[in-house]
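Students often ask why we bother encoding 3D structure as a string. The short answer is that it lets us treat folding as translation between two languages. Here is a chain of 103 residues written in the first language.
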Amino acid sequence: MTLWIAIAAVAAGSFLLKGAGPALLGARELPGWSAGVLALLAPTLLAALVVVEVLGRHWENVDLTVVAGLFAAVGVFLVRAPMLVAVVAGAVTTALLRLALSV
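And here it is in the second language, the structure alphabet:
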């Protein structure tokens, strides 16, 4: 039951934070510089999460097969392939490298 209380508290806090901006600003617009900062927050956070997940805390769990798969996915994406194809290419590269290195 404690888990559901924590989930409800986080949901309520998220709702309050999302509603605080429009409630405090009203009809006023944000300054021009803040729009650029807000646009860069999501990609920056995503990149940080990917780096921490791939390299581990303090770079102690570096798995070169995952790094190679990440590079393969980025390479396929840079040649204008759809995101799904890039993700599949990265997963296949990682799986094949793990299979080749385990033999």
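Translate back mentally: The helical segments are 2-25, 32-55, 64-78, 83-102. Keep this in mind for the problem set.
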